[in-house]
Amino acid sequence: MVVPRPLLQPLVPRLRRLLPGLAMSSATGSFSLQQPLNYRGGARLQPTDGGQVEEVYEPATGRVIAKLLCSGEKEVDLAVQSAKAAFKVWSQKSGMERCRVLLEAARIIREQRDEIATLETINNGKSIFEARVDIDISWQCLEYYAGLAGSLAGEHVQLPGGSFGYTRREPLGVCVGIGAWNYPFQIACWKAAPALACGNAMVFKPSPFTPISVVRLAEIFTQAGVPKGLFNVVQGGVATGQFLCQHPDVAKISFTGSVPTGVKIMEMAAKGIKPVTLELGGKSPLIIFSDCALENAVNGALMANFLTQGEVCCNGTRVFVERKILDTFTKEVVKRTQKIKIGDPLLEDTRMGALINRPHLDRVQNFIKQAKEQGAQVLCGGDLYVPDDPKLKNGFYMRPCVLGNCTDDMTCVKEEIFGPVMSILPFDTEEEVVERANNTKFGLAGGVFTRDIQKAHRVVAALNAGMCFINNYNVSPVELPFGGYKASGFGRENGRAAIEYYSQLKTVCVEMGDVESVF
Ligand SMILES: NC(=O)c1ccc[n+]([C@@H]2O[C@H](COP(=O)([O-])OP(=O)(O)OC[C@H]3O[C@@H](n4cnc5c(N)ncnc54)[C@H](O)[C@@H]3O)[C@@H](O)[C@H]2O)c1
Ligand SMILES: C[N+](C)(C)CCCC=O
């Protein structure tokens, strides 16, 4: 059945305005883009070198929607030089001046929310419903750091004899942002907002799978009044990322992606003594105690596993359920999972779209196959999904999967799958579950559902994870710091904490008396 999309059609003229030269209607299966995808010095352009071409897909249909020209060393250098020049201007502005520009950027994003969300859905495959939430979180992030820009300050310290010292919070210079493909626009905002608020410039490289929406962000920054060259986009994959990380004029690298790539980024950064923020993967625990509000816990488990087709770093994919309620909880979770509407991500009622690409879908399928071989029981889903609509036949869909009969030593319980696969694990005691929850190399997130407030706080205090939720999961207020422990990385995005990672502290010691020399 093909559902009409009355809400989508009015967007076509607005998308044409956003991306002139765009050959499209905004319906799934009709988008294509010829415009350059690099952004430097305040304009879109093709890279001067590189030349490797990557195909960019629409996951919902499997169509190629754009060709990506990967940037070479020269183009990366030009982008860094462009950022360096703009940094000189931007870093001299007062916090209040930076605040006004960032607020304007937030306003434009808010105004263009539906169009940007549509681009994100077309390129990423997530439902339009979710993409709109991502864009809301993005402009909220800019608003939040705009608010902080005007109040960045050091401290004044009195010293003996009337002398004193003070500290200044200063920008770092040209920051590099490297993003993953699951939240393309939001990841760019989580990095750019604190970076720019602190007075830095940025060169951003999105994933080659999702290069489109971040160029729109670059245009919005220019429209809002940042100096040309302050926020640049270079497109490409591994080689382009390496040129960026190795560039001598880059002051900081903020990376979101997998653990193996994070290790490489850290190695490159070490050679240049560059600070890094690493937002890496996870295999987070969600602990459901028998005294929970069951409906909330079921909702929480779905939120913890099935947003963005399960392609979420902080997902609570190890769902530990107290044995007393195992059957009731499992039955309800399976029932609700089976009802998730899969299909055309641009339809208003779709709640699960397509996974990012065919190799990733195959990888997720292999995890499920291996789980079955190791003794897990597929309670629902896990198979490929082929929508009725003929234009979606080559899309990358699968049914969300709940695995029962899981044990801690199974691959599906130990490794990050990054797809819609929930593993349910029974437990008996608080002590036991905390130990099992922490028995992982990762430490990004964790959650607990219980009505016992003391137990809730005791358990999250014992979890080795950077982002913990009590009686909810995967909500994302930009006021709260986000980031991992252990192999999930370090550094924080969002909240006041991120300021630490995009600025450096200068101490000034002022002598008010004479110099007493020891010589
Ligand atoms: N913690 C978080 O906030 C967070 C958020 C989203 C995704 N992730 C993680 O990201 C992973 C999925 O994303 P992915 O597949 O895009 O990850 P990835 O590591 O393959 O790629 C991430 C980015 O790094 C670039 N890159 C790859 N090799 C590089 C190199 N040697 N030098 C420089 N850049 C390089 C890629 O082109 C891409 O832009 C998952 O593990 C997920 O958990 C983490
Ligand atoms: C917005 N979420 C759902 C918290 C996801 C943050 C980014 C992780 O992949």
From TrEMBL:
Pfam family, one: Aldedh
Protein name: Aldehyde dehydrogenase 9 family member A1
Quaternary state and interactors: Homotetramer.
PANTHER family: ALDEHYDE DEHYDROGENASE-RELATED (PTHR11699)
Taxonomy, superkingdom: Eukaryota
Catalytic residues identified in the record: 279
Cell compartment(s), UniProt: Cytoplasm, Cytosol
GO biological process: aldehyde metabolic process; protein homotetramerization
Organism annotation: Anas platyrhynchos platyrhynchos (Northern mallard)
Pathway: Amine and polyamine biosynthesis; carnitine biosynthesis
Domain Aldehyde dehydrogenase: 54-508
CDD domains: ALDH_F9_TMBADH (cd07090)
Keyword Oxidoreductase part of the UniProt annotation: yes
Family according to the record: Belongs to the aldehyde dehydrogenase family.
Predominant subcellular localization, coarse grouping: cytoplasm
Keyword Oxidoreductase part of the UniProt annotation: yes
